[in-house]
Amino acid sequence: MxxxxxxxxxxxxxxxxxxxxxxxxxxxxxxSSVILTYPIPSWSLRWFEELFTADAWRRAIVNSLIxxxxxxxxxxxxxxxxxxxxxxxxxxxxxxxxxxxxxxMVVPAVxxxxxxxxLLAGFxxxxxxxxVIIAHTVVAVPFVVVSxxxxxxxxxxxxELAAESLGASPLTVFRRVTLPLALPGVLSGAVLAFxxxxxxxxxxxxxxxxxxxxxxxxxFSSIRENISPAIAAAxxxxxxxxxxxxxxxxxxxxxxxxxx
Amino acid sequence: MEHSVAEFIRFDRITKFYGPLxxxxxLDLGIEKGEFVSxxxxxxxxxxxLLMMLAGFEQPTSGNIxxxxxxxxxxxxxxxxxxVVFQSYALxxxxxxxxxxxxxxxxxxLGKADIAGRVARALDMVQLSALVDRRPSQLSGGQQQRVxxxxxxxxxxxxxxxxxxxxALDKQLREQMQLDIRDLHRRLGLTxxxxxxxxxxxxxxxxxxxVFNKGRIEQIGTPRQVYDEPATRFVAEFIGETNxxxxxxxxxxxxxxxxxxxxxxxxxxAVSGTVTPGQTVFLSIRPERVDLSEIRGDAxxxxxxxxxxxxxxxDHLRVQLQNAAHPLIAKLSRRxxxxxxxxxxxxxxxxxxxxVIAP
Lengths: 260, 359
What we know:
Chain A is an all-alpha fold. Chain A has eleven helices and no strands. In chain A, helix 3 packs across helix 6 and helix 8 runs antiparallel to helix 11.
């Protein structure tokens, strides 16, 4: 019994440790004060209003949505294609290639950022949406690869062979069998890609111009210039969006699972 | 090469390597239209690889596969028009039973009404009409395999390939399905190539059995031929149980040979291949063909033995014997009298009930 209690206490403390920063920042989104500190004098939604009316913030939100969507699309397509290719057992250096795909997860973002800036400048893509989307895609692809590879591993290869023997061309097998079965993994990968793009600051600092300021980038600069509670409001928006996306994914997964 | 006109499938000198490993070696096999042929052998003997090459999932390293006189090496799987049934059922988990069976018909661009009619008939054939809207995961193993079977038959394929389709089912269900598949084969006139490692399954279902060992066919023939007239030691031991006794050929007359055993006894036995006097050979004697009696009977072959053990096994009595040089097993009908250990008996069998095998 004491053992059980200790475990419970330890788990609670760990969770507290993980979410303490959220607990600290979220109430400040609803402060009426002009500075980002406790105590909160009275409750207000003025910083949300600021977020949606002030030009800089509004553009940041729109930019985040544009870049996030672009990244999601590109990373999901590339990551899914990579995962499909990595299924081929006859592939030489299969393990090494897989590791290469996951490399952006561990390479320091600063290093990637410098390299990306040099490279994109060469193609004249700095200070453009395309440049930022490309940069974000590089760090988002590994998440898609991990997620889709997991989903593909759960498919019995013989199901695809059976489809082929029943008269389906390789493309039809993919469309009617492989993709529907891997869809939960593809969806999770897409959500992770979007979340990665939303959250990405370092690469954005290197490659984005003033016109591509994302929400995260805007928060980062405004915390240095003026510590306004609009940051807290933006943070609240972030978390609310993340939770929402999480719920959508869980729901769609359980619906897909029910179909089986 | 000359092949008979009725031959529908022909494996022509097929060799298959996986890297340095040779899994099928220079193999020739012909299958006739409407025939049920089992590829029987232990795992790793190349039987599944041969089936996979016929389906188009694997390519032979060398040699040709002919279907109805035309080489199909370069025809992709989806254009071969062969129904494949796997051990793991391989149903589409995201489709209902009805959608699974409709799939091959949709691939062939049939109309909706036509598809509905054919699906209904195909499911009716395997008694699963009531489950048309279920998901595969809601079915038992036996039901899933019947769905897989009707999916493989619904588009009237030219050949039906089965890769250990009953391996995942329990014994009773397996025996029922064996009879069902045999019945379907006869009713629909299907050409079936059936891979199994279960010798009783192969004997029950097939018109002909090809016994595989190490990438080669050791023997091909009717169930009766491979059981009663094993051509090699491997076949004799792999199919059913047998007594293998070593001896030296004394004389050969036509289809019979006199063989002198180590114990000194002389045995008259049928011969399938060619043996020459002086050659060391094995005799294969099926345990259920051995009769025991306490007096020397009028059987052509008679060995003087002593009972070492006797086990009652419900449908038969299993008696272990020992003579001067060889152990011997006899399976007696359960109506037979008991033979307690220590009893001196004569083990008798006719010349046709044993077979000379060159080692």
